[in-house]
Amino acid sequence: MTPVFNFSAGPAVLPREVLLEVQKELLDWHGSGMSVMEMSHRGREFMQIAAEAEEDLRAVMGIPANYRVLFLQGGATSQFAMVPMNLLRGKTSIDFIETGHWSKLAMKEARKYGQVRVAASGEAQGYNAVPAESDWQLDPQAAYVHYTSNETLSGVEFPFVPHTGDVPLVCDMSSNFLSRPVDVSQFGLIYGGAQKNIGPAGLTIVIVREDLLGQALPGTPTMFDYKVLAEADSMYNTPPTFAMYVAGLVFKWMQRQGGLKAIEQRNIEKAALLYETIDTSAGFYHCPVEKPFRSRMNVPFRLADERLDEDFIKQAAARNLLQIKGHRVTGGMRASIYNAMPLEGVKALTSFMQDFARNHG
């Protein structure tokens, strides 16, 4: 079978090794006679799967003991509400660093629960960079500071972790989760949807420092209270069992790759190759993001002659390079090159891009 390279922004490509393992175990998990999809979430078999998934995630990320790991539903978008419901904790204002589409949506939802302060914004520059940290206007009395570490649409990624002093730092890490090492102890809370680097859509991971649990806003639904969910080990209700199982296999795959340091180096190599192809195309292709803030995960680019866009997409698909069209909000092209995208996929894309430029230049 001719290999297909899927550049979708999410749901995204999964490691082939993991997919083959899922295929092998689909009808009978470890001799149980059951598919994971059929198991009780409180049965011995699935409890083992869940425990190993958390243990392996803790090992991969180096999560300290005073942080709880929650496997939840609702996507990262649900966290736009759950975070302020749980972390306002008697305060009224929240600081946001606005860097694009997803941080704007998080701000919009948070306004329902507290006062949103835009401590810094990249809007005036078209969201093509992270505002200089020295210019941020942070409030030391804020309940927390929220930022989006990688904007999936515009391809802007933070090359640093913000310094917020005693104010808890909250990060929507959805699209660069587990793509590089991070010091979890610098954060009050990390959250992200699984469908980029971790597993199937339907699973959301929240990593929250224990001292931030409790004091949810009055009227917070029980299912939105982190303390309740933590005390129930993410099983207050039926969790997304199959997605948790696949995520657990991905965590084990990451360990076999050499962990996040090795994965980061591969991501650097892939991104460098693609950006070099764009930058050396004599203007045929253009990336609008300033170089220090270019994402390793989501690479947006445009053709100088947008009349060629449809031909580019069709010819890419003919070479089994799929899901290359940019988001409807931003237009252009976007290649998402998450952990599971092999270097061979990026080489195939860059080879096509060079051929296309030669034929249409």
TrEMBL record:
UniProt name for this protein:
Phosphoserine aminotransferase
This enzyme catalyses: 4-(phosphooxy)-L-threonine + 2-oxoglutarate = (R)-3-hydroxy-2-oxo-4-phosphooxybutanoate + L-glutamate; O-phospho-L-serine + 2-oxoglutarate = 3-phosphooxypyruvate + L-glutamate
State if rRNA processing is listed as a keyword. no
What cofactor is needed?
pyridoxal 5'-phosphate
Which positions bear N6-(pyridoxal phosphate)lysine?
K196
Subcellular localization: Cytoplasm
Cite the InterPro entries for this sequence: Aminotrans_V_dom (IPR000192), Aminotrans_V_PyrdxlP_BS (IPR020578), Pser_aminoTfrase (IPR022278), PyrdxlP-dep_Trfase (IPR015424), PyrdxlP-dep_Trfase_major (IPR015421), PyrdxlP-dep_Trfase_small (IPR015422)
The taxonomy runs:
Bacteria, Pseudomonadati, Pseudomonadota, Betaproteobacteria, Neisseriales
Q: Which organism is it from?
A: Chitinimonas taiwanensis DSM 18899
Pathway given for this chain reads: Cofactor biosynthesis; pyridoxine 5'-phosphate biosynthesis; pyridoxine 5'-phosphate from D-erythrose 4-phosphate: step 3/5; Amino-acid biosynthesis; L-serine biosynthesis; L-serine from 3-phospho-D-glycerate: step 2/3
Gene Ontology biological process: L-serine biosynthetic process; pyridoxine biosynthetic process
Q: Where is L-glutamate bound in this sequence?
A: R42
Q: Which Gene3D superfamilies match?
A: Aspartate Aminotransferase, domain 1, Type I PLP-dependent aspartate aminotransferase-like (Major domain)
| Cellular component, GO, one term | cytoplasm
Q: List the molecular function annotations (GO) for this entry.
A: O-phospho-L-serine:2-oxoglutarate aminotransferase activity; pyridoxal phosphate binding
